Request: fold
Amino acid sequence: MAFMEWSQKFSVGIPVFDDEHKKLIVIINDLHGGIAAGTEKEALQRATNRLIEYTILHFQHEEMYFEDWVYPEAAQHAAMHAELKRKVFAYRSRIEQEESSELAAEMLRFLRDWLAQHILVEDKKFGAFLFDKGLR
Ligand SMILES: [Fe+2]
Ligand SMILES: [Fe+2]
Reply:
């Protein structure tokens, strides 16, 4: 069984964002698999960077929609994205300094739990708002 699995309960009702969440989960699972397989540190760092870059891209995409659709809860939702980025950047510098795959695994567990909770609450709320606006 995969480290994290997308299921219908995570659907926010907007396919483009569901697809991005699925891709994020794929990247998380790749990194997790790499750690479990004892991947060398350069590959681990590349995978960590890829995960962080895609996370940022995804947040930017949601935030673009906040603006375009004048989402009333944009500020609090974007603040959560910012806080997550701050935490993940802190993890990355510690992972690089300590060359620790255990720390990378800890970051993944944190990210998995954060993402599940964030999708289920905030992204679903935003998805429902867009759905109401007629977006599919
Ligand atoms: Fe999201
Ligand atoms: Fe979000």
In short: DSSP finds four helices and no strands in the chain. The mean pLDDT is 95.
